[in-house]
Amino acid sequence: MMQYTLFDPKNDFVFKRVFGSSRHPLVLLDLINAILEVFNEPALETVTVLNPALDPRYLGQKGSVLDIRAESGQAEPINLEIQLIDQHNWEKRSLFYWSRLFDEQLNQGEDYLKIKPTLSISLLNYKLFDRQRPCSLYEVRECQDHERLCDLLRMIFIEFPKFEGHGVSSRLEHWVQFFNVKTDEDLKKLLCSCGSEAIREACDMLTNMSRDPKQREWYEVRRRSMLDYNTNIRGAMEKGREKGKEEGKEEGREEGREEGREEGQVNLLIELASTKFGTLPDWALTVIKSVSEENIHRLAKSLLTAESLEAWLR
Predict the structure, then answer these.
(1) How far apart are CA 279 and CA 25, in angstroms?
(2) Per-residue pLDDT at 15 exceeds 90
């Protein structure tokens, strides 16, 4: 038998092939319901993928999005996307994607009552939030008593790295194990530990894809494209940090020079005032040290004609 390397299920091309297949709706349905189960949300009875087609021409485009758009049996929009690298913008990006899906429900002139609850699910291969909990659900709620405004906005974030050692949901944990498989042996262990028909289907799809030369060609195109893209993003972020450090250093040097000039002017003013009025009391020193640069110039000009320390600092 020909040797092969198992595809990474977290690659968005593989993710789209496995979970976005209209011929295997059980796989996507079970994943979504495993996630909803964590938050005690009602399970979906059916789910339909709205964008099952995958054009290989887009696989090499850096930054292209291979998300899954679906709808429940009640025609409620659902968007799923997997992210491998923290680009420090996912909160805003995911909200933008959600809003676009929400907005597309109505045409001009249609009734707002037709709007359906819209669900966004982000599967993240990095830690997004400071909390230890790996699953987060965001809604629109009142800040003080936490009353929910409506059920139209739901955004779920699943952080894979936080699952180790957390008893979240055995059903969802099995799916997280699927996303983390690296070898056939990992697949066998997973199938032995759970009896999920949906996960079995997903494992079969992953194995068949990994053995298909054409699929491997597309997989490698996508993998290299995302590697280049993420490398460029990291490089740009590093350049930004270095530029910020240099600007901060220069700003610090300039601030230091400015502070030095001001301090020199204050010390000179104190010396001149001491020559005229004698040793200055503490209250006078406090006043002089707290004046602005503009007032330092004013005090310096009026010092020669001042009749008393009190009148000068008045």
Answers:
(1) 89
(2) yes
- Token reading at 85: 């690298």
Q: Please state the pTM of the whole predicted model.
A: 0.71
Phi, psi torsion values for 121, nearest 5 degrees:
-125, 120
| 175 has pLDDT over 90 | yes
Question: Does residue 146 come out as left (phi exceeding 0), alpha (psi in the -120 to 50 range) or beta?
Answer: left
The answer to which of 30-44, 85-99, 138-152, 271-285 has the lowest mean pLDDT is: 271-285
pLDDT tens readout for residues 199-225 = 999 999 999 999 999 989 888 888 887
pLDDT at residue 146 tops 70: yes
- Distance between CA atoms of 83 and 90, rounded to whole angstroms? 9
CA distance 65 to 100: 14
The residue written with tokens 């968007």 in the block is 79
The first and second tokens of residue 18, run together, are 């496995």
- According to DSSP H, which parts of the chain are helical? 12-19, 25-38, 90-103, 170-179, 184-193, 197-211, 213-277, 282-290, 293-302, 309-312
| Cα–Cα distance measured from residue 240 to residue 233, given in angstroms and rounded to the nearest whole number | 10
Q: Specify the DSSP class assigned to residue 144.
A: T
**Count of CB atoms situated within 10 Å of the CB of 173:** 18
Domain boundaries, the chain: 12-211, 240-312
Which residue shows structure tokens 């429900």?
105
3-state SS, residue 57: helix
For residue 124, which phi and psi values (nearest 5 degrees)? -115, 130
Mean pLDDT (the chain) is 84
Rg for the chain, CA atoms, rounded: 31
Residues 6+ apart with CB under 8 A from 282: none
